[in-house]
Structures are given as C-alpha cells and as structure tokens.
Amino acid sequence: MIAKVMRGGDTYRLLQYLYGPGRANEHEDPHLVGAWRELGVPDPGRQEERSVRELARRLDCFVRQGSPRPVWHCAVRVAPEDRTLTDAEWERVCQRMVSVAGVAPDGDGYGCRWVAVRHDGDESRHIHVVATLARQDDRRPSIHNDALRLRDECRRLERELGLRATSESNRTSARLPQRGETEKAGRRGLVEAPRSILARQVRAAAVAAVSEEDFFSLLEFSGVLVHFRFGLDGEIEGYSVSLPGDENPEGEPIWFGGGSLAPDLSLLAVRQRFAGGFPDTLNGPEDIWADLAGALRRVHQELGLMSAPRRSATASAFGDVLTAMAGVVPPSLVVLFGDAARKWEHAGRLPVPYEDHAGAAELRKIARALGRAQIPDDVSDQVVGAVPALLLVAMALSEWYQSQGWESQEYAAQESIRALGAVRER
C-alpha cells in the first residue's frame, strides 16, 4: 500500500476531476467511502440531487480567504495483485490516514473536513482523500512529516488487511511502468509495456552470458536495440536498450538505461557477474536437472552457516535459475515458472552487500547452461522433479527475510513459492 500526498489550491476543480470520467475514462462509479462525519455529507456520485460544487463548498467552509494551497490530497493505492477492498475496508483505511497525518486526529471533533472518493472498475485499487487544511476551531492542523507517518501506517494496514508488504526504500525495487507507458502499449497491441518486456529480455541475456561482450551480443541477437555511453577514455560507461518500434513523436527510439529497468541490470551490476574467481565453463544438458537438484540441496544445507553477504549472493543466483528455467520448461509450465521468476526478481535483490561463493557460482553456472542449451521438449518429469529442491531453498530464504524484517522481499518470495507449489501439484 502506497500513499502519495499532494497539495493544491482549488477544492472544486479537484473534486470535479475525481467525480468526472478521468483522463482515459477510468473513473467508474465515483462515490464516497469516508468523510469527516457519518451523516449529511453530499455524495454527487450516488445522490443525483447533490452537486460537486455543493460538496466543495462544504469542505471549504472553514478555509480563510487567501490561504495558500489549502487543499490536502492523498492518493492511496494497493498493489495490482492485492485483493479488491470493500468500501468498509477503504473507509477504515482513510480514517486511519487522516488521523495519523494530523488532518483529523482520531477523537478530535474539530479536525479538518475531508472526504474519500473511490472509483470502481479496473482502476478501483485506489482512493483519493481530499481535505481542506482548516480546523473547525480556527487552529492550524499539525501535518509536519505527514508523508513519513503515512508510510508507517501503510505498513501497519498491510499486515492487518493481508495486503502485499512494502518496506522502507532501500533501492531494491524495480521501477514499474507508468500509466502512459501502459496505455501506449495497449494502443500498439502489446500485452506488456516495453519497459517490462525489455527488463525480461535483458535479465535473460545477463543470466545466459559468460562475459560482458557475450551479454551485449545476446541482447542484439534477441532483437533488442542497444546504445552505449562511452567515457573520455573510450570505455563503455553505461548502456541503454530500446524495443524496436517503440518511438517518441519524432520517430526516435525510446531508450531505457539498464539500471532504470532494475537495480541489478545496471552495467556495474552486470559486470559483477563476471568478476568472480569461479570457473565459467558450462555443463551440457545431459545431466543438468540432476546437477541442479544436487546444487540446490547443497546450498540449502549450507545456508544456515552463511554470512548475510553470501546469502545475498545465493538469493540472486537462485533468481538466475528461475529465470533460466522459465525459458526452457515445456509450454504447460511456462506460465507458472514465468510467474515464479518474476516474483523472485525482487526477492533476490537484498539491501546487504554481495559476496560470491562456490555454491552461488555453481547455481549461476547451471543457469547459464540452461539459458544456452537446446533442451528436449519431453522434460516435464525432470523439471517437476527439481521443484522440491527449489522450494527448500526458497522457503529457507523467505524465513531469513522474515527474521530480518524485509517484508517486501518476504512477500515476493512467498508469491514465488506459491507458483512453484502449483508446479508441484500438476
């Protein structure tokens, strides 16, 4: 759950937008799910005889003439994979938000006036809380550090409502496609935004590559456009990628830096893959599934004795294995393994230093072999046979995340475990 606070100066214009169709007709059935009082608050979305202007006038009742930016606007959103909250649950959320923010503290009958508007349909996973920063006793509200207090309250509500866990910013999250990117992809007939497609292709190339040069060769072979940034000494300092056909209005490719796709896809992070002192020789496909199961069990046995940096390397290498497997499993398992790999992307990025070790290097070597080998079609039994060992490592790492308080990584790991469990049940 994420709460974003904004300030404005026109209550009526904001409410007019929230009760209108939206920029892309995404505002379906706008209606109140909470307000400063239980009764008597007009809801233009459900009461035809009440107007947006009337509601704005009621909210502005205590605002002094000439007050600078008196409108407090907080958008509260849950993750796309979270369940749909009921109106009663959203009311609980908005009551808590205005209380901890200092807008209308719980039990304070003279707090600021506020309302919360929800939209149904595809965009129903968020609400907008609108308040006027004018207390009803003529005192100024105390909203200092409201964003920090809201962030902490979001984490508490996630636990209470069983929602996806977020954590304090530690630079481990990948950037999600913006709304404009998603809408543009839909107009082009793409199932995903270019950012998401590129992230998956770049990650697959990084997993399969044996060197930096090989990494860029694999990217170009996959059809991705690659642009390099060179330093004064002529060395490559960074790279960007673009999906063919994804262009700006001037017809130029839209470029994404590797690090903007995900923290572990920056050039520095990719180079770290090839900086270890462990052999990069590849196994053949003959016994690769048995090799994988054996490597996973050895890593599982050693996890309890590993330092945090070595566990971090193990979690990252485990993600490589899932990424590689998603590219070679039979069609009947592609969706489940693809889901497991995507969920583990965040679970494998940890806010601790990274120290490579033999167990992680072995997992990466097997992942490279999987990413490059020609795997026969009839390997369903071998793939399913490796799942118990995958689950052993995933569950052990998830338990460690829980002990460290890394809620977002723990949540991602649990989602990946659920996908792997579904493979085992097939």
Strands side by side in the biggest sheet:
1-3-5-4-2
Q: What is the architecture of the largest domain at the second tier of CATH? A: 2-Layer Sandwich
As a percent range, the share of helical residues equals 40-55%
Radius of gyration, in angstroms, nearest whole number: 25 Å
Question: What composes the largest sheet?
Answer: 5 strands, antiparallel
Count the E strands. Answer: 8
Task: Tally the helices.
Answer: 15
- The CATH topology of the largest domain is given as BirA Bifunctional Protein, domain 2
Helix and strand content put the structural class at alpha+beta
Beta-strand portion reads: 5-15%
Task: Give the averaged pLDDT, no decimals.
Answer: 86
Please write the CATH class name of the largest domain: Alpha Beta
What's the structural domain tally? 3
- Topology order in helix (H) and strand (E) letters: EHEHEHEEHHHHEEEHHHHHHHH
First-last Cα distance: 33 Å
How would you describe the shape? elongated
Task: Explain the layout of strands and helices.
Layout (H helix, E strand, L loop, with lengths): L1 E7 L2 H8 L9 E8 L16 H8 L11 E7 L9 H14 L13 E7 L5 E7 L13 H16 L17 H9 L6 H15 L3 H10 L3 E6 L5 E7 L13 E2 H4 L5 H6 L15 H16 L4 H19 L4 H17 L10 H15 L7 H25 L2 H19 L1
Antiparallel strand pairs: 1-3, 2-4, 3-5, 4-5, 6-7, 7-8
Helix pairs in contact: 1-2, 3-4, 6-7, 6-11, 6-13, 10-13, 10-14, 11-12, 11-13, 11-14, 12-15, 14-15
